[in-house]
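Form 7-S
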Amino acid sequence: MRKFLVIAIVVAVGLGAAAYFGVFSSEDTAAAGPGGGQQAGGAAAPGGQRPQQQGGGAGGFGGFGMPGGGGGPRMPLTVEMASVKRGDLAAHLTVVGNLIGLQTVEVAPKTGGRLMSVSVQLGDRVRRGQVMAKIEDREIREQVNQQEASLEVSKATIRQREADLKVAELNFERSKNLFQRQLLAKQSLDDAESRYMAAEAQIDLSKAQLNQTDARLQELRINLQNTTVTSPVDGFVGKRYVDPGAMVSQSQPVASVVEISRLKLIVNVVEKDLRLVDTGDTGDVEVDAYPGETFRGRIARVAPVLDPATRTASMEIEIQNSDNRLKPGMYARVSLVVEERKATLVAPKSAVIDFESKRGVWMPNDEKRARFVPVELGIEDAERVEIKSGLKEGDRIVTTGATAVRNNDVLLIAGEAAPASGFGGAGGAAGAGRGGRGGATDGARKFQGGQRPPGAEGQRPPGGQRPPQ
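Output:
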């Protein structure tokens, strides 16, 4: 019984407290409503004027999209403009690679042996046929002398065989005369004929031996010439591999000769760009060794097939290097002109942006507000792009600052005076935010022409009070 009594007393006290505080809260609200001048945390100032604001500043800038602004108009943006013009435009394809000599030859001897001398040094200029090294040739010379002697023996043998043939021929003719007069037996005639034919065969054999000896002699003479190592091309000694006294063979080069009067730049072209290049096209070549300087290059060869692993095709670009300033191994970049347009509409590349999945530019309307214009683009270079459709010559478009612009933004053009009415809507919205609930009435007022009355340009009268409205 006492338990139910305690519960009843607690419920009664709670209901009474709720009724008490609800009445007083309603009175405070009613008192604040008619006066229209109380702040959220204090009483109204004498004479119905507002004291200096303390807590409403956070919402006073809501009109410009700052925190607590509620999505109002954005701050005006300062941008730069440019005009769409007509001009010549060329599209370039830039590829990179390493320079190599037009001919790079590893000079190796044609016969093995010990080097007697090497007559060139690294960097020496050599001509075609110039002696570069010499291999010991004493043994080969002795073989040549021996073979020359054998050749003389073969020649003497032939002379002897020719004499024997002549004797055999006379005996055969004499035997035929005697046989015709029936003074010689048939067998004796046949013997004389056989000796004559054998003499002829001996002559043929001696001549064949002479040719064999002569061929061997020529071979030895060639081997003797091969002991002299000569340069096969004009150029410079790029590397020297051995020194005098070393043993060399046909598989071991003595030096490397590079022709640099013309150079090659071998680059790889991706599949999508292969259709843009062709043999005979020219371009500008740049190297890090000569900054700001360009050299002329020409496409000499393009591979007819692509590498399946990289989906690229090799391309050789020849570069004249008569002054030998460029060196093989230099890193080079070549810019090829792949397409050209004459007197076409062009615009700065900085003006073209992506907006709502479209490519286009920003243009100001009559009220200096941004509007998006889709365009169709063509070829481009480092700074400009071709406009195929969407704009006409003389149109002014936003360049610097285009990426920050949004639709219907107020544009402040650099170098021009700010528009007088450009801040009207923003000022009213800002006034609506100041002072919390009390500022709502001020923000609702509209000033003629979008301007503040005298004394309202961002300053307050002395004492922090607003002037009578």
